[in-house]
Amino acid sequence: VYAYNAIISGFVANNLYNEGFKLYLHMRCHGVPPDKFTFPCAIKGCSDVLEVKKINGLLFKFGLELDLFVGSALVNCYLKFGCVDDAYQLFDELPVRDVVLWNAMINGYMHIGEFGMALEVFKRMSDCMVVPNNFTTTGVLSALAMSADLDNGHAIHGFVIKRGYDSVVAVSNALIDMYGNCKCIDEAVRIFELITEKDIFSWNTVIGVNEQTGDHQGTIEFFRRMLDSGVRPD
RNA sequence: UGGCGUUA
Question: How many Å apart are CA A213 and CA A215, to the nearest integer?
Fold first, then answer.
């Protein structure tokens, strides 16, 4: 089982979802019992909801129905396929909810365009004394960017500074996107300039934000700086 | 050997 897990995990980590899932089926065919390491990867490898439900039904047999890692993978997968009710029911049944599980709910709602629900879950999470991490923060900021919600965006920005997440590139990138979509171009660019290690997301986002203003010269200038910085355009 | 995040 250890060997199967290692290879399945390798496949899904490299986006070879079908290969990963096929290997999971292969191990089942050969009577190798899967464990709590197998399922999160196998779930990620599922390409349709029926396979996910099949695995979900199997969990009881292995006593893994309350495993947080398996549960998070399921919640994530259900929301990816738009099965909000299944995801919520699972979330509700898990007795212990860690930050990753909350994140899976928030980002799942975001993924299907339910920005209001994403924000609701975020608030509930804080009520439950679970501290949002930088994954949570990037997800919520992205939801606020999509809904151009500057008020909540400002509030989250304050939280980001309080917790020191402003040193995390992905968080800064999400802030740039949020301010950009809220038409606060100067603030977006200010945050961009503060990033010490600008990545491909930083450049793409700031270029997109700047271009919205119709300032083509500025956009070209950002692009030139991007090339100079050694980040390859994609 | 395991689950969640930012642009397009």
Answer: 5
H helix runs in chain A, sequence order: 2-13, 17-29, 38-45, 49-58, 68-80, 84-93, 99-111, 115-127, 134-146, 150-163, 169-181, 185-194, 200-211, 216-229
**pLDDT tens digits, A46-56:** 999 999 999 99
Which residue in the block uniquely carries the two structure tokens 């977006």? A188
What DSSP state is assigned to residue A197?
S
Give the nucleotide nearest to A181 (CA→C1'). B7
Instruction: Give the nucleotide nearest to A173 (CA→C1').
Output: B6
ipTM over 0.90: yes
The answer to whether A200 CB is within 7 Å of strand B is yes
Cα distance between residue A128 and residue A230, in whole Å: 44
